[in-house]
Design goal:
- This protein has about 180 residues and is of the alpha/beta class.
- The protein has one domain: Rossmann fold.
- Helix content is about 20%, strand content about 30%.
- A seven-stranded mixed β-sheet has the order 3-2-1-4-5-7-6.
- The radius of gyration is 15 Å and the shape is globular.
């Protein structure tokens, strides 16, 4: 059974029907891989990228334990990106790098989707998580960051987080036209 810290976010779960068997999925800044693993469980062909070798090692171990196939790539996304290709779904959770959102969006194939969720500025007042402006969204900012993709739906919400505390998040599902 998954521990709470390894469960995919509500936003992933609410949109999981978009992750179909055989779909190519990219998990950007995957950390320990909870969303990559969840997508692989649904039958997707997953590529997951993070710069933290220790977290990727944990992700590989968990994938092995569950007998899931995920391509894990160690890369610093603040530098030149490896050639990753395009994907039916791109996932970006709890990571914000405004200057590189263009790269994230470029990875979405025609007809593909972007699942994006990260912290709002008010998160600082909750006493945990990112504190720098560069890593926090302003209210209403998320939909503009995913342009020119078309926003299908989104939200700004307080919700239970991995650490049994509350998180202030903005979530967007966006699609590239075919």
């Amino acid at each position: 059974m998954l521990g709470f810290e390894q469960r995919p976010s509500y936003w992933f779960t609410a949109n999981a029907a978009l992750i179909t068997p055989g779909a190519r999925v990219l998990d950007v800044a995957c950390g320990t891989g909870r969303h990559a693993l969840a997508a692989a469980t649904l039958g997707a062909k997953v590529v997951a990228v993070d710069r933290d070798a220790g977290r990727l090692r944990q992700a590989r171990d968990e994938a092995s334990r569950r007998r899931l196939s995920v391509e894990w790539i160690e890369a610093d996304l603040e530098k030149a990106w490896p050639d990753l290709g395009i994907f039916d779904a791109v996932m970006l959770f709890n990571y914000l790098d405004r200057p590189r959102m263009v790269r994230v969006i470029e990875a979405v194939a025609p007809g593909g989707v972007l699942l994006f969720e990260t912290y709002l500025e008010i998160q600082r007042q909750l006493g945990w998580g990112p504190t720098q402006d560069a890593h926090l969204l302003k209210y209403g900012e998320a939909t503009g960051l995913v342009a020119p993709l078309t926003v299908v739906h989104g939200r700004e919400a307080f919700e239970p987080a991995d650490n049994a505390q509350w998180a202030a998040v903005a979530s967007v599902l966006a699609k590239r036209p075919k």
